[in-house]
Write a structure and sequence with these properties.
It is built from three helices and no strands. Helix 1 crosses helix 3 and helix 2 crosses helix 3. The longest helix has 22 residues. The protein starts with 5 loop residues before the first helix and ends with a helix.
């Protein structure tokens, strides 16, 4: 099985967060470790709820994904 693309990993995390399923969120968080822009500090407090960790990481990944598009010159 091929590794997920960075965008797919980010979107997978975004899709599981609203479901409020801690097991699915933890699995998606585990997938982000292979993301080239993964920053463990962006996940926040390791003692925080898994949904909170996922949201913190999603914000960081989304900013990295969207940033170049916002500042790209035509």
């Amino acid at each position: 099985m091929e590794p997920e693309t960075p965008r797919a990993v980010t979107l997978a995390l975004a899709c599981v967060l609203p479901a409020d399923d801690d097991e699915a969120i933890a699995e998606a968080l585990g997938e982000t470790v292979g993301h080239p822009d993964y920053n463990p500090d962006a996940q926040g407090d390791p003692e925080a709820a898994v949904q909170s960790q996922g949201l913190s990481l999603l914000i960081d990944l989304a900013q990295q994904e969207i940033g170049p598009l916002v500042f790209q010159r035509s």
